């Protein structure tokens, strides 16, 4: 069966009508073969305004529904996702080129965040605070915030929406989602899955609780600029974050910015090398290097360099690259030609800076429009040139170090620090890495790679954005507004000493 036909069948099972998949002006291609799989319609500027108005009207009603009842809707969403995990996971693989376990893993993350948010719907706690006034009580209350805008990147086409939406919904907010223009089909599928949950939930879920805007950066900009959207959670490149951040700040709206990751690991003399090798290979080559948490820089102590780097190179030379839908390959395609061109440019720049490149060439297939590459490992004399930037492709730059402090300083010496890891059995090195003077990233791990975060912890937090946060822990607070309430149950109104008003 052709991929286009399979896509149509999957979407039909997921509840998306065939008429939504043809006749539009946005051509959707599968990176697996490069073939066209749909043509969907895009929103206009006026559509964005209408969608936000509808979501705002929904918010005004939804905020009055008790939070545990709101949690029930998210519980049903989790059930629908469980029931459609296979189809949605397969669609992710087709639209993004992830291998089957990664496509399914992404849907599992959606299920996990729904479970988390259901519990959270009974735990949106405020504090009761000791007051300095007698006969008073002081407390804080958390209220729903409003319409939450979600802008997502192509490489996690469904999980990122759910990390935001599950929290926003239990917090009493409505959601307007602008997915990547490269992945509109999985977004339409999520919209249909959500509609099923709403149908089962009943009438107290207002119309307009979720709106999906299919379109490019201009639709994202319209969402960012809209006065009725008090929070935008935007996931994507640092370039996008630099455009979105100031616009939101300009109208005092909140921003959760989850951006690029030029992530690094340190391999110390005492490391369990077998464990480190497996974690490095998975973290650097998984999803063809197209994860925000992909391992991109590696600092290896000179005493173990020759034991680890030749073995890594072997793994790079032997890893199976190919069609992710056939279930044998570990590395699937790049998303498109421009990703391939960027990778080649970075490798050329690395060579010019004295790097020695293993791998990186295009892997030929029967499909001229698909871009498969052998992952590249580049031994660099120092951290210069392309090593300082995130290239969204499977390139791992390896550098030798002699002094731990120097490795730590190099580790922290790039802009986009999202995730980090250290491989060591030395307690002092491990603890220093996690300490205030250690890794400056939002995620810092010991003896586990940079990728594969769990939803229970707050995710992300590039140092440049001051730590945008979504998903677990107390990330929910960004989706609500806090009020401090003081209640006077005394018979007097205490004023500042010496102040009195004549009110008769
Ligand atoms: P991208 O920045 O090209 O696009 C991301 C989204 O932003 C898309 O929906 C796009 O339409 C929108 N957009 C682009 N310019 C915009 C603007 N000016 N205003 C409003 N919206 C705009 O990113 P991509 O290529 O889709 O994804 C890859 C990037 O995303 C990588 O840098 C990766 O590290 C990052 N990423 C980060 C995380 C995280 O949680 N930190 C997760 C996934 C991906």
Automatic annotation (TrEMBL):
Active site feature: 258
Keyword list, A-Z: NAD, Oxidoreductase
Keyword NAD attached: yes
InterPro entries noted in UniProt: Ald_DH/histidinol_DH (IPR016161), Ald_DH_C (IPR016163), Ald_DH_CS_GLU (IPR029510), Ald_DH_N (IPR016162), Aldehyde_DH_dom (IPR015590), ALDH7A1-like (IPR044638)
Domain called Aldehyde dehydrogenase: residue spans: 26-482
Any one Pfam family match given in the protein's UniProt record, by short name: Aldedh
Highest taxon of source: Bacteria
EC number(s) per entry: 1.2.1.3
GO MF terms held by the record: aldehyde dehydrogenase (NAD+) activity
Assembly and oligomerization: Homotetramer.
Family note: Belongs to the aldehyde dehydrogenase family.
PANTHER family referenced in this protein's UniProt entry, alphabetically: ALPHA-AMINOADIPIC SEMIALDEHYDE DEHYDROGENASE (PTHR43521:SF1)
Name under which the protein is recorded: aldehyde dehydrogenase (NAD(+))
């Amino acid at each position: 069966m052709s991929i286009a036909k399979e896509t149509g069948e999957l979407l039909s099972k997921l509840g998306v009508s065939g008429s939504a998949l043809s006749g539009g002006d946005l051509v959707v291609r599968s990176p697996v073969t490069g073939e066209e799989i749909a043509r969907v319609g895009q929103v206009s500027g006026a559509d964005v305004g209408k969608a936000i108005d509808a979501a705002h009207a929904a918010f005004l009603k939804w905020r009055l529904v008790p939070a545990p009842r709101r949690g029930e809707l998210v519980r049903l969403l989790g059930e629908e996702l469980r029931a459609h995990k296979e189809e949605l996971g397969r669609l992710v693989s087709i639209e993004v080129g992830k291998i089957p376990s990664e496509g399914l893993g992404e849907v599992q993350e959606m299920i996990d965040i729904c479970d988390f948010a259901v519990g959270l719907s009974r735990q949106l706690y405020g504090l009761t605070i000791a007051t300095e006034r007698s006969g008073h009580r002081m407390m804080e209350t958390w209220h729903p915030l409003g319409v939450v805008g979600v802008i997502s990147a192509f490489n996690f086409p469904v999980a990122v929406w759910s990390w935001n939406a599950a929290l926003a919904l239990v917090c009493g907010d409505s959601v307007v989602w602008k997915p990547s223009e490269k992945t509109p089909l999985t977004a339409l599928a999520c919209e249909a899955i959500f509609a099923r949950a709403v149908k089962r939930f009943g009438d107290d879920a207002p119309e307009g609780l979720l709106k999906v805007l299919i379109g490019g950066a201009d639709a994202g900009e319209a969402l960012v600029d809209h006065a009725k959207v008090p929070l935008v959670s935007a996931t994507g490149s640092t370039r996008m974050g630099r455009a979105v951040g100031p616009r939101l700040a300009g109208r005092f709206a909140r921003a959760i910015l989850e951006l690029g990751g030029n992530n690094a690991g340190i391999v110390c003399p005492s490391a369990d090398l077998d464990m480190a090798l497996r974690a490095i290979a998975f973290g650097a080559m998984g999803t063809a290097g197209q994860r925000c948490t992909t391992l991109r820089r590696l600092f290896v102590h000179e005493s173990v360099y020759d034991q680890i780097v030749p073995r890594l190179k072997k793994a790079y030379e032997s890893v199976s690259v190919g069609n992710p839908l056939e279930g044998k390959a570990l590395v699937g395609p790049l998303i498109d030609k421009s990703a391939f061109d960027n990778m080649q440019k970075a490798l050329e720049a690395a060579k010019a800076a004295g790097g020695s490149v293993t791998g990186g060439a295009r892997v030929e297939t029967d499909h001229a429009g698909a871009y498969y590459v052998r992952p590249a490992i580049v031994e660099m004399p120092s951290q210069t040139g392309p090593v300082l930037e995130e290239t969204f492709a499977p390139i791992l730059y390896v550098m030798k170090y002699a002094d731990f402090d120097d490795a730590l300083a190099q580790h922290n010496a790039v802009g986009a620090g999202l995730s980090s890891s250290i491989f060591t059995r030395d307690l002092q090195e491990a603890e220093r890495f996690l300490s205030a003077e250690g890794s400056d990233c939002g995620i810092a791990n010991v003896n586990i790679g940079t990728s594969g975060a769990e939803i229970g912890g707050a995710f992300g937090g590039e140092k440049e954005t001051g730590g945008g946060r979504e998903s677990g822990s107390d990330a929910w607070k960004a989706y609500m507004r806090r009020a401090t309430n003081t209640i006077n149950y005394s018979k007097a109104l205490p004023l500042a000493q010496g102040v009195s008003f004549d009110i008769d």
